[in-house]
Write a structure and sequence with these properties.
Elements lengths: L2 H21 L7 H22 L16 H7 L34 H11 L14 H10 L3 H7 L5 H18 L8 H18 L6 E13 L2 E4 L6 E2 L9 E9 L4 E3 L2 E13 L5 E5 L9 E4 L6 E8 L7 E11 L14 E11 L16
Parallel strand pairs: 3-11
Antiparallel strand pairs: 1-2, 1-4, 4-9, 5-6, 6-7, 6-8, 6-10, 10-11
Helix pairs in contact: 2-3, 5-6, 7-8
Length: 372
């Protein structure tokens, strides 16, 4: 068989296979089903056009063409199913066959995305503010850097007396920190000592008066120069109206006031001596009572040390026994008469005071010597 005959035979066979399908009758929609189908397509096209909102790059939205059935068919996500033929009558379309409206996909604008991003971003931690530098440290730093005027401004927060002391202390501390004391010449060290003396003079009047040493003495010549008696020494009691032994008490003082008044430096101290028994009851008072003006001591130079020579006789009719001698000193420098003195300008000291019978005069004390 020739190849032409073969091609002709294949074409006849293919036509015979496809021709019955082309000639068979397809089921057609009823007018009512066709009308429902067209309405559903138009609603689909209208919904898609409204949900789209137009192009973001063109202000005019899409305008649906409701008269063209092809648009409604293309808007549907699925082709409508063919109606089923029933046995009792013409074919009808079931309710489930109606096309469903697709759910439009929500669009998220750029502002909403930006808001979400800002909500997720955490703010950067704020660094705590450093605490304010204390005025004293700020003044010291300014002195070290040579800014004295600015340092004085930092010290304005303090009262005048404290400010004066702090200013001298800080200046002295800065000068000492910049040198090596082992290498400083003696003359420069003398300047440092003068600064310390000035500071001591500023602070000493505000310090409390103190008694640093009390001793019974045989002879007192000057400050720190005396002949002390033994610690267990007993003094002779008087007989009748005659007093007993002569008693000298060396009292050394510290933190007393030395006020400049014209060309002189003045110091005024009032003292009082009392004898009490072992239980603290007052036996007698010796010397000038407290509250009376003391004799003012005037010198042309500032006094650096001070002592009192308190002396008396053992009172007559004071029976032998063990007592306490209470020494009280009051700094009344610069105070008018009748003005109350501050407590820190009053100093008190107690020392054992033993009295023996005349037979044991100037001897050592023994408990058996006491007369009941």
């Amino acid at each position: 068989m020739m190849w032409r005959d073969r091609i002709l035979a294949w074409g006849i066979g293919l036509s015979a296979v496809l021709l019955p399908g082309c000639l068979s009758d397809r089921p057609r929609l009823t007018p009512k089903a066709q009308e429902q189908f067209d309405q559903a397509g138009q609603q689909e096209a209208r919904g898609v056009a409204e949900s789209s909102g137009g192009s973001p790059y063109h202000p005019q939205g899409l305008r649906p063409n409701l008269q063209q059935p092809s648009l409604s068919v293309q808007a549907s996500t699925e082709p409508p199913p063919y109606p089923k033929a029933t046995e009792n009558g013409p074919t009808t379309q079931t309710a489930s066959a109606a096309p469903t409206r697709p759910t439009p996909t929500p669009r998220t604008s750029g502002a909403e995305i930006q808001a979400v991003v800002h909500e997720d971003v955490r703010p950067a931690p704020v660094k705590p503010r450093p605490p304010e530098e204390p005025s004293l440290l700020a003044a010291l730093r300014c002195y070290r850097e040579g800014r004295k005027d600015e340092a004085r401004k930092h010290l304005q927060k303090f009262d005048p007396s404290t400010r004066e002391v702090l200013e001298r202390l800080l200046l002295l501390a800065v000068r000492i920190s910049n040198v090596n004391l082992d290498m400083v010449p003696p003359r420069e060290l003398s300047v440092f000592l003068q600064q310390f003396d000035v500071l001591a003079q500023l602070i000493r009047p505000r310090a409390g008066l103190e008694i640093t040493e009390v001793r019974f003495c045989q002879r007192i010549r000057r400050f720190g120069d005396y002949d002390p008696l033994p610690a267990d020494h007993a003094f002779q009691a008087g007989t009748g109206d005659r007093p007993g032994d002569f008693v000298q008490v060396y009292v050394e003082l510290r933190n007393f006031t030395c006020r400049k008044n014209g060309p002189f430096y003045e110091t005024a101290l009032a003292s009082s001596l009392t004898i009490r028994d072992a239980k603290g009851a007052l036996i007698c008072r010796l010397g000038e009572p407290l509250g009376r003006p003391a004799q003012v001591d005037r010198l042309l130079s500032r006094r650096q040390d001070c002592f009192l020579n308190c002396h008396f006789y053992v009172p007559p009719n004071l029976p032998p026994g063990e007592y306490k001698l209470v020494i009280e000193v009051k700094d009344v420098t610069g105070l008018p008469e009748g003005v109350r003195v501050h407590d820190h300008h009053v100093a008190t000291w107690e020392v054992p005071f033993r009295i023996a019978s005349p037979a044991y005069a100037s001897g050592t004390w023994n408990n058996a010597d006491a007369v009941p």
